[in-house]
Amino acid sequence: MSQITDFNTINVPNWCPGCANFGVWNSLKQSFVELNLEPHQIVITYDIGCSGNGADKTNTYAFKSLHGRTIPIAVGVKLANPNLTVIATGGDGGIMEEGVNHLMWAARSNYDITVLMHNNRRFGLTTGQPTVTTNKGEPGSTSPLGIPEDPIVPVHVALISKATFVARGYAGDPKQLTKLIKSAIKHKGFSFLEILQPCVTFNKINTFDWYKERVYKLEDKKGYDASDWDKAFDISKSTDEKIATGIIYEDKKSVPYSQRLSYRKDKKTTLVDEVKQYSIKEFVKEFE
Ligand code: SF4
To answer: For a surface tag, which of 26, 70, 186, 254 has the fewest beta carbons within 10 Å of its beta carbon?
Structure first.
């Protein structure tokens, strides 16, 4: 059985002291331990940004992508080798802004990957510019008077994109977050988990104290049924006054993309097993 230290490398994270990424990192490793996963069974793809800084600090297979491209890389890995646990990480900038098209298409296709979106409502790595999740009027490093647009709600986008698992966790509640990461990984199909992650350096508005006053757990809401898409849609529209955490929606009958491919129905091998070497000698000769 793996230990939490098995998922460390010789590198130590250099996030700012007090950054919520430390909590997310610990919950992620704890969920691997509780799921009995070993480092060689996991692939994590990373985006550019503070969350991407974990790439060489977590002992699993890893791929550091271009900005906004963490999801398509994860999809490619999973299609090639479905035996792996594949997780795409990124921030609100990478996943909801540059890469939102990838999120929508991957959700619709129900690829069997887990997306962990760290939402600090700022571009932290580049000193706090606003993202699509920043509230209208909130000042950022390049917009001292605030931005004029309304924010996008990530779980709302995931739901309307047909994601079969949509959840929201909070970095200040590691116990719940670990549970949610485990549920997201276990889900058969596309799982989207937004993680509210305070940026202690560049976001002085959405702080730990700010979230503490607003978050509540759906599991404490009497009669909440996460299989009801319409109810989930209503919850996903929630404002900053009350922020729901927990599993917002799950289709327990979800059939992942790879199992929908009739022509691969009887295959006992994966695409990785089927890779062969082909000689292109004859083909090249035609051009000599
Ligand atoms: Fe964390 Fe913000 Fe520092 Fe990035 S800039 S490491 S998100 S506190």
So the answer is: 186
